[in-house]
Amino acid sequence: MRFRVPLRYITVFGVSALIALAVGIVFFLGFFSAAKNTRHLMSDQATVMISSMERDISLWLQPVNSQATWVAQHVVSNADAVSDLQHFDAFMMGALAATSQVAGIALVSPDGLIRRWTRATGVALTEDWSSREEISLWIEDATQRREGSWIEPFFTDTIDKTILLHDLPIHDADGVLIAVLAQIVPIEELSSHVVDLSPREGMTPFILYGEDLVLAHPLLKKAAGNDGTAFTPLTPLNELDDEILKQIWSPDDEDLFFLDNVENVKTSGVFIEEHERYFVYVYRAIEHYGATPWIIGAHLNTDIYGGAESKRLMQALLGSIAVLLAAIAGAILLGRYITRPVSAIASAARLVEANRLAEVPALKPSRMKELDDAARSFNQMLIDLRERTLIRQTLGQFVPEEVARTLLSEGGSIDSETAEATLLYSDIEGFTALTESLGATKVVAILNAYFSAMVDVLESYEGVVTQFHGDAILATFNVPIENPEHAKNAIMAAFEMLETVNAQFFCGHRLSIRIGIDSGPVVAGAVGAAGRLSYTVYGNSVNMAARLEALNKEFGTHLLVSENTAKLAGSCVDLHVVGETSIRGQAETIKIYTNAEKSP
To answer: What is the pLDDT of residues 223-270, one digit of tens each?
Structure first.
């Protein structure tokens, strides 16, 4: 290609565009700083608001907990009077006077007798609730507890209202239940208290019981309280006359970016078409008042709560985002033009790295001079690699793949080396009889299928087959591929070879094999005539592995492992001692091992 654009020209224009963008960013730094300060301010306000609500609710309900402890101490001190609950009338009426939020107090004896003191009537009543199943279950649960708890809100006909109930089991020094103290707080009192939590205009506080029920809301106070019924003790969220709160679980936006760094507080936003306003939800789940969490929070009218400053800030932010997006779009277009050829080279290089040369496409010429030169060089390199791979693959059919790589990398020669290795020698049982009964052609097909399966297993454990001799296989571990766990790998490969042979047919025939394994020093290298070399290994362990393979006949096993290999493998493999035997050529007897299921 005659006309090519130097990469440096493209770079100049790119840098110029980046400089122009950087200059533009400087003008926005002031805005971003102000926006950041505004976000932090609004986030701090949201956190303070929710934390203040949680604190106020805790302060409002904490006296109930404290009074329960105080009353329990008094009851324990007068345990003898529990049989006559009227003894506590004056004390309980005084307790009601101390906690305005508590509408009634009750003591329930273990036998189901209850004494109730009510603020509204100022009257104490004694009733026998022993026949009520729910009371029996409640007392039974109280015998196992020591701590007070808040019960799920329910409607009580004693005051015809939905209440929160706090109970505290009272035990004597021996752990015996004396009575259960119960204090009731009307839900409408909680709604009245929530109204007082609104710090400024535009904020509507709420408390949800779970996600679907309303525990407290200003509208409940205006509607004469959340009295409830036995069937619906709490107002369902979808029945509350607050269209804004109804959409809290289906907002338009979640995790608002302008309310970041809000610790343990959820935020979301929704646009209400009816009000033509954007509202923000700020809420937190608290789990101090029973099994179901309370969700305390507020929804905020952004026009009122945020003010005109927030609107102007949002408009400026949107304008800045538009400018930024335009700059990004320009940078992307320019970057794609520059990087498309580079990306093509990188993708092709990854395919080469994965040795998928057949899938690598030829790179197209480029008008950028440097990239065009790179593409030409890469294409030539690809041609050379494919030729080299073809040579290696062809050579690898006759010598181990690792040896073929070494030969190519070292110019066709390979040096001998001495190393400690593990040798695996395997043979097919009854191969001679099989050959005589099937004939050479059929046996060759069986051997090819068998050898393919065995080589796959051995190579998966980094074993290298150095020799096929008839039906026998000689494989090495730790040479030429180094692996410190060669003994364990050889044994695991033997286990899988036996499993593979037992699990499948080879050209319609079942086979049975014997394997011997030994570890020790060997010499590995290429030997033979000047024009015909073969890669092989020499050493006593080669002979030892072959002899252990033959000894399987005497011990009735399919795998024998020498003591040397077993010690190197350690406890990583499950082997058992078969016994001790003498090996031809060895001065002393050795221990031999086999796999667990074949041990005597």
So the answer is: 444 555 556 678 898 888 888 899 999 888 877 755 655 667 888 888
Burial of 207 (0-12, 13-18, 19+ CB in 10 A): buried
Q: Which two tokens stand for residue 559?
A: 């795998």
- Give the residue range(s) of CATH 3.30.70.1230 domains in the chain: 413-598
**Cβ-based neighbour number of residue 25 at 10 Å:** 14
Q: Crossing angle of helices 89-98/7-77, nearest 10°?
A: 150
- Tokens standing for residue 104: 């009634």
Residue carrying structure tokens 């400087």: 26
Q: What is the pTM of this model?
A: 0.46
**CATH 3.30.450.20 domain span(s) along the chain:** 1-305
Cα of first residue to Cα of last residue in the chain, in angstroms, is: 78
Query: Mind listing the pLDDT tens digit for each residue in 21-80?
Result: 665 665 556 555 655 555 566 666 777 778 888 888 888 888 888 888 898 899 888 888
Rounded CA-CA distance 484/463 in Å is 12
Assess contact for 547 and 584: CB atoms under 8 A. Answer: yes
Q: Under a CB-based contact definition with an 8 Å cutoff, are residues 214 and 246 in contact?
A: no
Share of the chain above pLDDT 90, in %: 20
Q: Residue 439 and residue 455: Cα distance in Å, rounded? A: 24
CA–CA distances in Å: residue 280 to residues 210, 300, 505: 20, 5, 70
Q: Which CATH number applies to 413-598: 3.10.180.10, 3.90.1150.10, 3.40.1000.10, 3.30.70.1230?
A: 3.30.70.1230
Superfamily (CATH) of domain 1-305: PAS domain (3.30.450.20)
395: tokens are 């050579």
